[in-house]
From TrEMBL:
InterPro entries: BTB/POZ_dom, NPH3/RPT2-like, NPH3_dom, SKP1/BTB/POZ_sf. Pathway: Protein modification; protein ubiquitination. It comes from the Eukaryota. The lineage of its organism: Eukaryota, Viridiplantae, Streptophyta, Embryophyta, Tracheophyta. It comes from Brassica carinata (Ethiopian mustard). This is Phototropic-responsive NPH3 family protein. Residues 31-102 form the BTB domain.
């Protein structure tokens, strides 16, 4: 800020504003100070400005103190709102009426703060007038709060002047509170309309928020989450905002012709901010994959991509094949982003492992088992279909293809028809593979899990190694042999099922369930052994007490001994008598404990 006693240059005429009202109100008093704002001079009078503006008063006092001269010319750099807002502020100082509106209230509030138009200088000064308008008009309406927040973006110099007076912060809180109020009113109206059908329309304010800049929008959504707005409304707003903001996404060839530095940076900021705003609830898969594709295209941060992949893995069993076909934008690589799918699978399997680890403390163990196993089977089918889709890509390496095959457990694939089809497609698309590479790839196919149709195709497939064809023919021969002896096989199978012996031809799902069941039975048996051990300890204590009591009666003890000796003499004594007594004990009915469980059986 600079001051000077020299008059303004003659070639810069005063503005029409200064001419219009100074000549009309102060026609007999010439202007005594020129203030330049954004290169535009304003010829004004000191005393109405000094009466309301603390900043002008300080400038005049400093000039008088330093040079003993009156201030006649000064410049106000970085004035909020520019010359137009300064003109409105000067009208206020001169008492000329004008209207405070949604579009100019932020600029006027910042200009009033810049000029220090406080109540210390004059009552009902411009700061108080603008604050009253904000509190009574703007903050009570969601729509007006959004408009005022948008107008904060227009204050380019200085860019943080509105933040200094907490205008954006108060707008954000007002939007969040009004949105929660709208949600409550809408919920009550839905309860009253009992005959309403179908889904309710989305909140009207979702479209209004799309006009905000991404940093303001992120602050609004965070405030809404804190105030308790429904996650469904937040997700709907995020989807609408991303759809409106990312319309300019183009493919790589077109983007190289544009200013990639500005467009991609803005879009990258939008994607990363939206992902960071996801609530804890599940986000629609279509939206997650859409954001992931955009993120791959514009190269978002690693943390952003990992967050998207982790959220997709939480509901991977619901994806479709088209969702997983993520194109690669980098040159000279495979058509599809296989690495991303591999990372998603790793996250999915870790999720299943964590659920199974925590199931021991959960009462609904069987339900968790069935849910996890069902999810694994669905993902196995999807991945086999994905492998068949990407297999013909000539740029797909063998290592990446086999990594996707190996990552899934063997019991996930009930049949290997899908895996065989994928491997056959890979062999067809990569004819230059060596014989050893073909063998290492075909070893993943279990010929016993191939259907008859797949076996017939594999037996006539020239692309397969000879060893695999032999295995297929052997499996087919065993299948035919089992069909011929079908009746005896069915009888033996029924006998095994009735006796509880698992069949050798059980499916992986049955084997997995059997292992889980055996584990639970072992735990139950351990608890039974512990109960039996405590009962034996109690019986031992009682026996000791009985022996102590009987030791005090010698006649009784001698009588029992004589009876025992008499029995031995009657039956001849010796080893034969001991065997007979043991046989008698076995034939007797065993006593049951208090729990009704056979004590001898509970030990086993």
């Amino acid at each position: 800020m600079g001051t000077s006693d020299n008059p303004p240059p003659a070639h810069v005429p005063p503005t029409s504003f200064s001419k219009s009202f100074t000549t009309r109100i102060f026609s007999d008093v010439a202007g005594d100070i020129t203030i330049v704002v954004d290169g535009e001079p304003f010829l004004l009078h000191k005393f109405p400005l000094v009466a309301r503006c603390g900043k002008i008063r300080k400038l005049v006092a400093e000039e008088m103190k330093e040079t003993s001269r009156t201030l006649s010319h000064t410049e106000l750099p970085d004035f909020p709102g520019g010359s137009h807002t300064f003109e409105l502020a000067m009208k206020f100082c001169y008492g000329i009426n004008f209207e405070i509106t949604i579009s100019n209230v932020v600029a006027l509030r910042c200009a009033a703060g810049y000029l220090e138009m406080t109540e210390d200088h004059k009552e009902e000064n411009l700061i108080a007038r603008t604050e009253t308008y904000l509190e009574q008009v703007v903050f009570r309406s969601l729509e007006k709060s959004v408009e005022v927040l948008c107008s904060c973006e227009l204050l380019l110099h200085p860019h943080d002047i509105a933040e200094a007076y907490h205008v954006p912060e108060r707008c954000v809180e007002a939007i969040a509170m009004n949105a929660c109020r709208e949600q409550l009113v809408l919920g009550l109206s839905r309860l009253n309309r009992t005959s309403q059908r179908g889904d309710s329309p989305p909140e009207w304010w979702i479209q209004d928020l799309s006009a905000l800049r991404i940093d303001y929008y992120a602050r609004v959504v965070s405030a809404m989450a804190r105030t308790g707005l429904r996650s469904e409304s937040i997700i709907t707003s995020l989807m609408h905002y991303s759809q409106e903001s990312l319309k300019g996404i183009r493919d790589r060839q077109e983007r190289t012709k544009l200013d990639s530095g500005t467009i991609e940076n803005e879009q990258r900021n939008v994607v990363e901010a939206i992902v960071s705003l996801f609530p804890n609830d599940k986000v629609p898969l279509s939206f997650l994959f859409g954001m992931l594709r955009v993120g791959v295209t514009i190269n978002v941060s690693v943390s952003c991509r990992l967050e998207l992949e982790m959220r997709i893995a939480q509901q991977l069993e619901r994806v479709s094949l088209d969702d997983l076909l993520i194109p690669v934008v980098r040159d000279e690589e495979s058509m599809y982003d296989v690495d991303t799918v591999h990372r998603i699978l790793v996250c999915f399997l870790k999720r299943i492992e964590d659920e199974e680890r925590n199931e021991d403390d959960n009462e609904t163990e069987s339900l968790i088992d069935s849910t996890c196993h069902s999810s694994l089977l669905k993902v196995g089918l999807i991945i086999d279909a994905y492998l068949a889709e990407i297999a013909p890509d000539p740029f797909l390496s063998l290592n990446k293809f086999t990594d996707l095959i190996e990552i899934l457990p063997d019991y996930v694939r009930v049949t290997h028809d899908g895996l065989y089809r994928a491997i056959d497609m890979f062999l067809k698309g990569h004819p230059l593979l060596t014989e050893q590479e073909c063998k290492s790839l075909c070893k993943f196919v279990d010929t016993k899990k191939l259907t008859q149709e797949a076996c017939s195709h594999a037996a006539q497939n020239d692309r397969l190694p000879v060893q695999m064809v032999v295995r297929v023919l052997y499996s087919e021969q065993l299948r035919l042999k089992n069909i011929v002896s079908g009746e005896s096989g069915m009888v033996m199978s029924s006998q095994k099922l009735s006796s509880g012996v698992p069949s050798g031809a059980t499916s992986p799902r049955d084997t997995y369930a059997s292992l889980r069941r055996e584990n639970r039975e072992l735990k139950l048996e351990i608890s039974r052994v512990r109960v039996r051990l405590s009962e034996l300890e109690k019986e031992q204590v009682l026996m000791k007490q009985g022996m102590i009591e009987k030791s005090g009666h010698g006649g009784t003890l001698m009588t029992s001994l004589s009876k025992g000796i008499g029995r031995m003499s009657i039956f001849g004594g010796g080893a034969k008598e001991e065997k007979r007594r043991k046989a008698n004990r076995k034939n007797r009915p065993r006593l049951k404990g208090k729990t009704g469980i056979n004590r001898t059986e509970s030990m086993f």
